[in-house]
Design a protein that fits this description.
The chain is α/β, with parallel strands linked by helices. Helix content is 28%, strand content 18%. The protein has one domain: SPOUT methyltransferase, trefoil knot domain (Alpha/beta knot), CATH 3.40.1280.10. It has a seven-stranded parallel β-sheet with strand order 3-2-1-6-4-7-5. Helix 1 runs parallel beside helix 4. The longest helix is centred in the C-terminal third of the chain and has 16 residues. It is globular, with a radius of gyration of 23 Å. The N and C termini lie far apart (54 Å).
Length: 194
C-alpha cells in the first residue's frame, strides 16, 4: 500500500480501548496513533497491548484540539454516526490520512468535525466500541487501497493469483533520455540523405 495513515481518539475515557486501538493500528501498519484531550498512562495502555505497539508506533498526545498537528498533505477523516456522513463502503480513502474517532460515551466535538476534511460513518444500526470502529476503518482502508486478488463470483477464494506489479521507467531516466535526445547531433543514424 502506498501512502500512510494514523488513527486517534478524541477524549478517550477507557484506557483499554486506546491500548486495543494502538495494538490494532500496529497490526495494520499505522504510521502513528494520537489521543486528543486525555492522558492515559503507559501502564494502562499496555494492559490491552500485547504486541509492544508502544515501542513500534508513535503515540502523540494532545491536551486539546488546538495542539493537534498533522503532517502536511494529511487529510483528517472523522468517523461519526451522522446522517450526512459518507457511508464508509462508498468512501475513497485518501493516500495520506488521519482518522479520528469519538470517545466511548460521546461524539466527536463540533470543533473537530468542522476541522475534518471528510466525515465517514460505519453503516451500523448503533454505535460500536471505539476500538472495534477503528479496526473496521483500518480494515476498509486496507481492502480499498491494498493489492488483493479479485473476489470470485461464487463463494470461496480467488481462482487466480494477484498479478505481479509492473514498475514503469523511473521518472529521472525518462527526463534524462529526453535531455540526451535534445542534445543529439542531427543527421545521425536513421536519417535519409546519405
Amino acid at each position: 500500500m502506498r501512502g500512510y495513515f494514523g488513527i486517534g481518539i478524541e477524549g478517550v475515557s477507557k484506557p483499554m480501548n486506546l491500548g486495543s486501538l494502538l495494538r490494532t493500528a500496529h497490526a495494520f501498519g499505522a504510521s502513528f496513533v494520537f489521543n486528543i484531550g486525555g492522558f492515559v498512562s503507559r501502564r494502562q495502555i499496555e494492559n490491552a497491548d500485547t504486541s509492544a505497539a508502544m515501542a513500534n508506533v508513535p503515540l502523540h498526545e494532545y491536551t486539546d484540539l488546538t495542539g493537534l498537528q498533522l503532517p502536511r498533505g494529511c487529510s483528517l477523516v472523522g468517523v461519526e454516526l451522522l446522517p450526512e456522513a459518507i457511508d464508509m463502503p462508498s468512501f475513497r480513502h485518501p493516500p495520506q490520512a488521519a482518522y479520528v474517532l469519538g470517545a466511548e460515551r460521546a461524539s466527536l466535538s463540533p470543533a473537530l468535525i468542522e476541522r475534518c476534511d471528510y466525515v465517514i460513518r460505519i453503516p451500523t444500526r448503533f454505535c460500536v466500541n471505539v476500538a472495534i470502529a477503528g479496526a473496521l476503518v483500518m480494515y476498509d482502508r486496507m481492502l480499498s487501497l491494498g493489492r488483493f486478488a479479485e473476489r470470485p463470483v461464487r463463494s470461496g477464494g480467488p481462482t487466480a493469483p494477484v498479478e505481479a506489479h509492473v514498475h514503469g521507467d523511473p521518472r529521472w531516466r525518462s527526463k534524462q533520455r529526453r535531455r540526451l535526445a535534445a542534445r543529439a547531433p542531427t543527421g545521425g543514424r536513421g536519417t535519409s540523405g546519405n
